[in-house]
Design a protein that fits this description.
The complex is a heterodimer of chains A (423) and B (126).
Chain A: H1 3-13, H2 15-50, E1 55-59, H3 63-70, E2 81-82, H4 83-91, E3 95-107, E4 110-115, H5 118-122, E5 127-130, E6 138-141, H6 143-147, E7 156-161, E8 169-181, E9 191-195, H7 196-210, H8 212-220, E10 245-246, E11 248-253, H9 257-269, E12 272-275, H10 277-330, H11 335-371, H12 387-412, H13 416-422
Parallel strand pairs in A: 4-9, 6-8
Antiparallel strand pairs in A: 1-11, 1-12, 2-10, 3-4, 3-7, 3-11, 5-8, 6-9, 7-8
Helix pairs in contact in A: 1-11, 2-10, 2-11, 2-12, 7-8, 10-11, 10-12, 10-13, 11-12
Chain B: H1 14-24, H2 31-40, H3 56-68, E1 74-78, H4 86-102, E2 106-110, H5 114-117
Parallel strand pairs in B: 1-2
Helix pairs in contact in B: 1-3, 3-4
The chains are: A alpha+beta (423), B mainly alpha (126).
Amino acid sequence: MNIVRLSWLNLVSNKLNSLLSILLMTFGVGIISLLLLINNEIDQQIQNNLRGIDMVVGAKGSPLQLILSTVYHIDNPTGNIPLKAVNKIKKNPLVKSTIPLSFGDSYQGFRIVGTTHAYLELYQANLLKGKLWESPLEVVIGSSIAQGNHLDIGSSFYGVHGLSEGGEIHENHSYTVVGILAETNTVVDKLILTSTESIWKIHDDEEKADGHHHEKEHHHEKGHHHKKTSKDKHAGEHHFSDDATITALLVKFRNPMGFIQLPRLVNERTNLQSAVPAFEISRLINLMGMGFQTINMIALVIIIVSGLSIFIGLYNALNKRRTELALIRVHGASSWQLVQLVIQEGLILTFLGLIFGLILSRLVLWVASIFFEANFSAKLFNFSLLGEEIWLLFATLLVGFFASIIPTIQTYHVNITKTLTDA
Amino acid sequence: MVFQKPHFVSNLSLSDNLLLSLFLAKQKQDKKQVKNILEKIGLGHKLHKKPDTLSQGEQQRAAIALAVIKNPDLILADEPTSSLDDHNCNLITTLLKEQATATNAQLIIITHDQRLKSQFKKSILL
């Protein structure tokens, strides 16, 4: 028997009160911790996908849409831009390197992106097996697609027009898988990559076959006319003139001066639109941050209510137990041992709520990651504490401490003779 | 110290109450000793019961066990037998006397109980 065990037994025999305090604490801590984890997860995903892209050039439209569609591949593209205009940007001395992107087709919901090998270097995507695409219609697929057993090396498939399933199938050309990429934890995992020429070839030939009617249809859909718009359609060979188009251009600057000059230059002097991902994403996060903050406040209130519940629990118990405390003093306990007893009860409740809360948030995230398998990879689920959670830990223990302090002071001043005589 | 009305830590079992008393007196927490003393006063079977579930007489006996378990030098008893029948009254007085002799402790009892008069040599009448 000692003071810690006595605290514990006191809490156990007061089951309902203790349970309420712990539950409130668990939910408060759990919600805040969950938000922190999700925030951290999103931040990581955003940073992972953002690296090395200083500016995106695309067709006029919403800058956020341009970023979402080209960097994160979660929105529809804004339209197409002529290769000629793009080449002018490439020549600007402030531009270090550029990567062209052409897309608008998909296969089983996975986007087919026409680009150069530099795109793979950008995301440090290495081949797991096979080789990189060399001639048109050869594709390399991301790890998620390979894992899902949709495709393997050597298999071929038809692209579907549009970015969702159920579109029109481009039947005259099939793609062949020549390589599979290792997991990168970026968007590349969910992309089918090929050369820009593949995209041109498919749409160019289709146009020839289907004639004018089809072309009209294509024009209705924004961002989907990667075909060359050259009038010289009868040339047997695929000669892509400067009239060819791409969807967007990813740009890396040579130095920070580029951030100041180039986006404005593109927006004012050309028919194109430029967007800086870092800026657009911080705007987006600010918008989401409002929601996060509201939930955070609610969770904070729950933690404070939990602190109150602990306070009321201890305070009530104290009034009932005044005689007992005096008795314990008679048996030889010092005032400080009683202080220890009461404050321990408060802190044990707080601590249990805290631990359960942290476990709860991770459990929820784990269940969610099973549920939305595609969006969270199991690897990202970790039990380690985030930096912010250590603050949460201290703040919560502080709430528990302050909740115990008034009952503790009263305990310290229990008048032994008076209490025992009155009893 | 034996109070007129028995007091316990209600959230602890009888044996835990006795162990707590030993802990607070910084003495060895000997479970055998706890068992022995409770058996002596006829409460061996209530070892793990909460004090609230004991009868008045049992509680009074337990209170005495609580007072003497740490082998004190001085035992003060305030109406220790007031709520007990003759049998229990004898048990308690015997226990108190035995304990006092065994540890060479002084024993002072305040009482209205006429049954005790004959058992003690020294008494001060007020």
